[in-house]
Amino acid sequence: DQVYQEVAKPLVDSAIKGYNGTIFAYGQTSSGKTFTMMGNKDSVGVLPLAIQDIFKTISVTSNMEFLLRVSYMEIYNETVTDLLCDSLKRKPLEIREGTNRNVYVADLTEEVVVSAKQVLEWIKKGEKN
Fold first, then answer.
1. Do residues 53 and 12 lie in contact, with contact meaning Cβ atoms separated by under 8 Å?
2. How confident is the model at residue 52 (pLDDT cuts 50, 70, 90)?
3. Phi then psi dihedrals of residue 99, to 5 deg
4. DSSP-assigned letter for residue 35
5. Is the pLDDT of residue 88 over 80?
């Protein structure tokens, strides 16, 4: 919870106000990236806490509309992989810069979500890939 409060919560708060934000874990194999991001039954990770905060804020905000989409990708050995894509359709993806100087991942799956439960279901699907 301390990592979330100090590092991720300010990004979540900014994202709710319309700014782009990214939370990612980087490190060698077995260094605790998945545990930090997802947690376990005894300790909630950064992502579930962020998802809870986002939907809690949306539920008490009446003067704005929200459109939430979830994507899940892995960058490994300089290859970008879409973790929400079925394995038969999976191919390396390219990072591109649009005309407005926004950086994006071409052909990355984006799923519209309306609940925290739905987001976590997509993440579970991605974890299996």
1. yes
2. very high
3. -65, -25
4. H
5. no
